[in-house]
Design brief:
- This protein is of the alpha+beta class.
- It has a domain of 95 residues: Muramoyl-pentapeptide Carboxypeptidase, domain 2 (2-Layer Sandwich), CATH 3.30.1380.10.
- 62% of the residues lie in helices and 10% in strands.
- The chain contains eight helices and seven strands; from the N terminus they run ααααββαβααββαββ.
- The strands form two sheets. Strands 3, 4, 5, 6 and 7 form a five-stranded antiparallel β-sheet that branches. The protein has a two-stranded antiparallel ribbon with strand order 1-2.
- α2 packs antiparallel against α3.
- The longest helix is centred in the N-terminal third of the chain and has 88 residues.
- It is rod-shaped and about 145 Å long.
């Protein structure tokens, strides 16, 4: 854009006054046009600056909102992870308790019925959570992570146990079963690795005036049959679905040490052992020496690892 070229000297070079007047008029019009263009350009620059300022402000707000959203997402993921961990913990306890109730059915039906009723209430609440798709996915991710961690932990424990077994501990499970006679009559079926220690324990308890027996090994096939009846016939229904998905709630196969022959539900004088009883006190003082440990929530249940 060029400024007007006309000056007062240009008018003196004009051929006539009319030409000078025309030339001055043209120069004036060009000046006005250029001034208008400059004004519009100035306005455009101001508008662009305002627009850029608005964009910068929006970008700052968006960045702040993104940071807040990221923080909120982290909080949500942490909360979901904690909730998923809690649900899995409850499900594991539910499986163990249901497995114990099923094991007790033959030796103390009333107590077994009481346990099943209590666990059914928990199962109903747990199922309401389980049916949510997002929760189910979170549980699956956590379950896989826990399975991998448990597998690594088990491998380390097996290696440590193989290196040096402490006094009173049991050898590795053999997968074969043995019957152990109870001093007062009857017998217990357990994994062969536990048989000698259990026989010695029962003999020592009898010498102390305590007549103990109970229930040991439980056939996994029986648990599978129950799952098929209560949960469905698919592989998922039998082996993977949580116990709360079944009607009535039924523990998953493999969730109880009884199915490996490494747990005993002791009876004392023909009845289930209770906390504070003479038999419980004797076991609490002596069972560890025979490689057996109590599940704290169930005074009658003793196993190779306390589960």
């Amino acid at each position: 854009m060029n400024p007007p070229a006309g000056t007062a000297l240009d008018a003196m070079d004009a051929a006539s006054a009319g030409d000078a007047s025309l030339k001055a008029s043209i120069v004036g019009m060009q000046h006005d046009a250029d001034a208008s263009i400059l004004a519009r350009l100035h306005d455009a620059h101001e508008e662009l600056d305002a627009h850029k300022a608005a964009q910068d402000d929006a970008a700052r707000r968006a960045a702040a909102a993104a940071d807040e959203a990221a923080a909120a997402l982290e909080d949500l993921e942490a909360a979901q992870s904690q909730e998923a961990a809690f649900v899995l913990e409850v499900q594991a306890r539910l499986d163990r308790n249901l497995a114990e109730a099923e094991a007790l059915a033959a030796i103390d039906p009333a107590l077994a019925a009481q346990l099943k009723a209590q666990e059914s209430q928990i199962a109903a609440r747990l199922e309401a959570i389980r049916t949510a798709n997002e929760q189910r996915r979170a549980l699956e991710v956590l379950r896989r992570a826990q399975a991998m961690a448990a597998e690594r932990q088990a491998a380390q424990e097996r290696a440590a146990a193989a290196a040096a077994a402490p006094a009173g501990s049991l050898g590795p499970a053999t997968g074969s079963l043995s019957d152990v006679a109870c001093p007062g009559g009857g017998s217990l079926t357990v994994d062969s690795s536990l048989a000698a220690n259990l026989s010695a324990l029962l003999g020592a308890a009898s010498a102390a005036g305590l007549n103990m027996c109970g229930g040991g090994y439980r056939d996994p096939a029986g648990q599978v049959a129950l799952r098929r009846s209560h949960c469905g016939s698919s592989h998922y229904a039998i082996y993977e679905a949580p116990s709360s998905a079944c009607s009535p709630p039924t523990a998953r196969p493999g969730t109880s040490m009884h199915e490996r022959g490494l747990a005993i539900d002791f009876t004392c004088g023909g009845g289930t052992i209770g906390r504070g009883s003479a038999c419980f006190g004797w076991l609490a003082n002596h069972a560890a020496g025979y490689g057996l440990h109590n599940l704290p929530s169930e005074p009658w249940h003793w196993s190779a690892d306390g589960s």
